[in-house]
């Protein structure tokens, strides 16, 4: 009997329990460390990558624990009856008896289960290294696209991000190794390629698991390993996106397997989300885009809060540069300082009014006074303004908020939120 099975049980069980309860922990950690409104491509990728890593470990150690549990059950039977099947007491015909005798013995089955349990443990660690290596590669790709080429519009595209994530995962798994099987050629071009591959090999962490992965591939059927690895990693990615989609809306989805009821809506009207109302937010919930104080307004004003996202920075910088916002240093004279502060306040108000647009019942409200604001309940940073509604009649109204973004030197308006409310 293997002497390490107790330790394997302890490790797998402890990791499964920790990973199963870690979802909310990581959610709180990232929301506190990196508030959703301040997410940049690095934080988003680190956030998603952490979830994928934990799901890979959870799936792998779950399979390992199941196999080891079955092995332990079989071992208990073999320990009590060490001589396998007693054919003298079996009441079957000759052909059935012969069939049983030709099958693997209980000890052989026990040994095979032990091997599969050990293999599942090793494959889990290998796949974890693959995900970790993929995160490094994806961070490098996004850094090059964002910082060197300014392609922020591309790295904010969910389709591109998921496609590149799947491609890199399969690349690190070895799906595209057939490209390297071509006959070696000499020359400067191929020497440069070898040099780049060496940087990639060590920089991405491929050296951690490459040889062990080749051991699995060369001693078994490659297509089985690659098919299993592809399904394994994509399942972990799918589960991660679905779980994050419960609270992070950008480019994610959330599939509720236990309650998939949907209201029949032939008119395709907007479905109101309670998270756009400040007084309906529960603990740990966020606006994500923004909202107002309540669905039923008894105040003489409307409190409008818009969450700041990193993508707004590019447009704000574009407007500030066009207005020469940071051209002059603060003057030394007190009288001039006051004028300086007033002028900067005016320019800041102009900048924010260009970024943010608000309509109530299709009427545009211009020259609003926006202030930077950190929401007391959600801890999100953004902008707040108060709009007088004395002139609105009693009843139902709709407020629409839009933001402006600047990608590839083009300014475009983007939908932010639509909120119905009632005035008393």
UniProtKB/TrEMBL annotation:
Membrane-spanning ranges: 7-26, 46-67, 119-146, 158-180, 192-210, 222-241
Keyword presence, Transmembrane helix: yes
Organism: Nonlabens mediterrranea
Alphabetized UniProt keyword annotations: Membrane, Transmembrane, Transmembrane helix
Protein name in the entry: Uncharacterized protein
Source domain of life: Bacteria
